[in-house]
Amino acid sequence: MRLTDTQVDAIKDAVAEVLGPDARVYLFGSRVDDSRRGGDIDLYIEVHAPPMPGWLEAKVALQRCLWERLGPQRIDLLIRSDEQPLRPIHRDALQQGVRL
């Protein structure tokens, strides 16, 4: 996994602050492969709350919080409530992903 311990802690803290302490965070995509270089940070996040009004606002707030802690860079967020159906993209992220 190509994230430092400091970056992992920053991600986990930001997710807990914006989406709650029970949110589960997984890194997937190119940053999981130690043999690759560069690439964006792909995060799959599962929350225990149903989709709410302001869901998009929460995603924007999380993006902003991550940029403040990690610096401006490409971060892709895939957020799913436990009550939403598991789609193929979610399954792929869970199969490839590393829980932070």
Automatic annotation (TrEMBL):
Segments forming domain Polymerase nucleotidyl transferase: 10-85
Protein name: Nucleotidyltransferase domain-containing protein
Protein species of origin: Billgrantia campisalis
